[in-house]
Give the backbone structure.
Amino acid sequence: MKTHNFSAGPSILPQEVIRQASKAIMNINNLDLSILEISHRSKDFVDIIDEARELTKKILKIPQEYEVLFLQGGASLQFYMSALNLLETGGIGGYIDTGTWSTKAIKEANKVGKVHVIASSRDEGYKYLPKNIKLDKNIDYLHFTSNNTIYGTQFKSFSELYNLAQSRNAKLICDMSSDIFSKVFDISQFDLIYAGAQKNLGPAGATLIIIKKEILKNNNALPTYLNYSTHIEKESMFNTPPVFSIYVAMLTLRWIQENGGLASIEKKNKNKANAMYDEIDRNPLFSGYTENTDRSIMNATFKLNNHKLESEFKKLCHESRISGIYGHRSIGGYRASMYNALEIDSVNKLIEIMQIIEKIS
Ligand SMILES: *Cc1c(COP(=O)(O)O)cnc(C)c1O
């Protein structure tokens, strides 16, 4: 029996994808070579990255005027790189602060230029998402985190932030690391989206970037590697790309496509999240961390009300091969990450354990 993997990241991938990837480690395309030892300039790999790019465009319905890139450095490099490329001289970057990742993005942008924190939910431990946000000055762009992996909040709709950016003629930038490919959304509202691969897409190493071409100015003063234009021109092959991570991402994208695309993935994710939150709300031993309306369908955060039951809960989880449910060190408690590849059976198993501890306590 497989371990029920609730890890927040790197996280669960479809079994089928792992099987195919392990085959390719031994022998890719019957070349008697491993995916780990072929040139990134070979036709075999160029076909792989082309397919990954095309599948991304197809699954997310990306319009013509956008480019899709696979770079390195994770979302963490994008905190700086996005500001470096999009902040005008003397301009202001606008940020919505909804947790650790937003805070890090703000910190990096501060090294590039002026930053304005438009709204923050820090006052209540990031348990909620700011609403009815007012913007009283001009900004170059508005940056936000769509899903707050650590706290377990998620923007259900992007319209308010899109309209806010529009009202100031500002670009919209999003760190979508932990919920891209989890649901249907309108990509045309965005100018730049970035996401580390290791939540819903593949192993760590690749970072997906979707960027509207027209927003880039030709700025040759930027460090070559940190200029989006470099990577657009070189089709993500300016230097050696993270070959294996891109290969596995391509397999995962095929899996998404073969499983009905984002509409059916979204339905499956909502079913899992509903089951999980219903139990958190029903079971008197547990309480959720976030405000109900802002709950993430990817990461459910909760705690045991009585600390004394923690070791028993841990033992029960261990016996049932439930793994990766501990909360981030900054908030403690539990976090059930329910990424695309997690089956409802795993959620049901965790619910069963929550009910068992309720009965015996
Ligand atoms: C995991 C995560 C990150 C960090 O990504 P790295 O690829 O490790 O830099 C940033 N933002 C969000 C929302 C995340 O979930």
